[in-house]
Amino acid sequence: MTPFLAYEDKGADSSSVPLVLVHGHPFDRTMWAPQIETFSAARRVVAPDLRGYGASPVVPGITPLSAFAADIEALLDDLGVDTFVLGGLSMGGQIVMECYARFPDRIRGLVLADTFPAAETKDGRRARAAMADRLLREGMRGYADEVLELMVAPYASAEVKAHVHGMMTATPPEGAAAALRGRAQRPDYRGLLTRVAVPALVVVGADDTYTPVPDAEAMHAALPHSTLRVIEGAAHMPNLERPREFDEALAAFLEHVDASSQPSPHEPRL
Length: 270
Prior knowledge:
The chain has 270 residues and is an alpha/beta fold. The chain has eleven helices and seven strands. It has helices spanning 33-39, 65-79, 91-102, 122-138, 141-151, 158-170, 173-183, 190-193, 213-222, 238-241, 243-260; strands spanning 7-10, 19-22, 45-48, 84-89, 107-113, 200-205, 226-231. It has a seven-stranded mixed β-sheet with strand order 1-3-2-4-5-6-7, sandwiched between helices.
């Protein structure tokens, strides 16, 4: 069966737990390029393009987080990836939370980067609907120009800015609008976080204004088994702005998961 999503699948299966990475809005799987390169040396790394983004099919209308999660589950079934560490940034982090709600037994660890668990506010729902209408009407470039130095810090390198701006302008407006409308309907995941039974890594850029450090601190406090890392010199995308520091935090977390990982319930026990 041909997978619905476009994806990167790099690194051989090994004793290390596979790593699955979910991009944010309005990006694509290339936002994880530094992490794919770093971590595929020792483990399998899978990074999909979400529906409506990158090279995946564009599905207009409304795409709820549950649809994104179902797509990821189906892709991992197709690829034979049974259990894994699941990480996401921003909207990708909210999709990770939805995945944990749907199939927690498959997830060995969570990475929640520059994200937050609360449901959308009334004002937020209106703003997302208005932005969806705008993107359909005007396209992505004006929006990308406006938010670039919020996505990454004004002092980010020209190379990083060009990469982020390029991802945003390449995103199909129909896919981005559908995700905005779906994200406006998301549930509140704060209660879910208190029931997460696996290790979690919470990461945030020190200068993130979309999901500031107090949001990350609140998630860290809610999660029973979590580590918090604040990345200095970064805004909303520390994995691209400060990849060395981000990867150091992720490497330590993955080492912990590998060491504590137990056999999957799908594997035979001796």
